Amino acid sequence: MTTVEHPGTGVAEPRALRAPDLLALDRAAQDLLFREARTADTFTDEPVTDAQVAAIHDLIRYGPTAYNGQPLRVLLLRSPESRARLLPYLSSGNRAKTASAPLTAILAADVDFHQRLSELYPYRPQARDWLADRAARVEQARFNATLQIGYLIVGVRAAGLAAGPMAGFDATGVTGEFFPDGRHEAMLIMNVGRSGPDPSGDRLPRLSTPEVVRTL
Ligand SMILES: Cc1cc2nc3c(=O)[nH]c(=O)nc-3n(C[C@H](O)[C@H](O)[C@H](O)COP(=O)(O)O)c2cc1C
Predict the structure, then answer these.
(1) Segment Disordered: which positions (predicted)?
(2) Same domain flag for 79 and 16
(3) What are 141-171's pLDDT values in tens digits?
(4) Which range of residues forms the domain containing residue 14?
(5) Does 125 share its domain with 79?
(6) Nearest C-alpha to atom 6 of ligand 1 is from which residue?
């Protein structure tokens, strides 16, 4: 079988494993969501509308979560005033791009997501009791909100937009500033917009399938 070397790794893998035609999604969609999609550091001035945000959420809300709990909550910052409240909590390298992005989202986990489980997970009414312990619930909220953030990044790309996720911020500070209710934890900041020129330098190498996948 022909092999190809994954750029930058020196690891060869069978070409068949990388063949895009083994996937059900057409090639253009694969490229839009993954191969051609880049993390954006610069954006055009084109606004991101509430209708686009709703269309993205309407798609990604079908991504699975444990107990169907859906703990992700999204706070959109559009006004200069709301952006100014966020900037001091960002690491210095993340400030300029966040100040200039058309839309910035604070992605948070609802640590009391279990309160909706009788509606969202009706065939296991006891699930709410399993999550009565706050520490266990917070872990579930973080884990599943993180999964939903992954879906959201792909959803942003499905709308032809680019995402700039950032973990470089003071999460405790952002939680206190924007979620004084005590039931949400800030997980990630994400800029969203139409990608500007030279979004983030050269594409970095990715691990090859044999480096990541083993079969026992
Ligand atoms: C969870 C997460 C946190 C990140 N945090 C930052 C950050 O704080 N600052 C930054 O400039 N880039 C950040 N990035 C961007 C990554 O470095 C970037 O997605 C990665 O290098 C892949 O780039 P590419 O999508 O252009 O190939 C983050 C990405 C993710 C997914």
Answers:
(1) 193-216
(2) no
(3) 999 999 999 999 999 999 999 999 999 999 9
(4) 1-36
(5) yes
(6) 166
For residue 190, give the nearest of 66, 124, 114, 98 by alpha carbon: 98
Instruction: Give the residue carrying structure tokens 């966020």.
Output: 86
* Among 154, 157, 200, 202, residue to substitute to test ligand 1 (most atoms within 8 Å of Cβ): 200
Considering only CA atoms, which residue is closest to atom 16 of ligand 1? 39
Asked if residue 22 and residue 55 are part of one domain, the reply reads no
- What is the DSSP-derived secondary structure letter of residue 88? G
Q: How far is the CA of 156 from the centre of ligand 1 (A)?
A: 15
User: Do the beta carbons of residue 33 and residue 157 sit within 8 Å?
Assistant: yes
Best of 33, 39, 174 for a ligand 1 pocket test (most atoms within 8 Å of beta carbon): 39
pLDDT at 12: 58
From residue 132, give the alpha-carbon distance in Å to each of 35, 85, 110, 179: 42, 33, 14, 21
- Residue-wise pLDDT tens digits, 41-91: 999 999 999 999 999 999 999 999 999 999 999 999 999 999 999 999 999
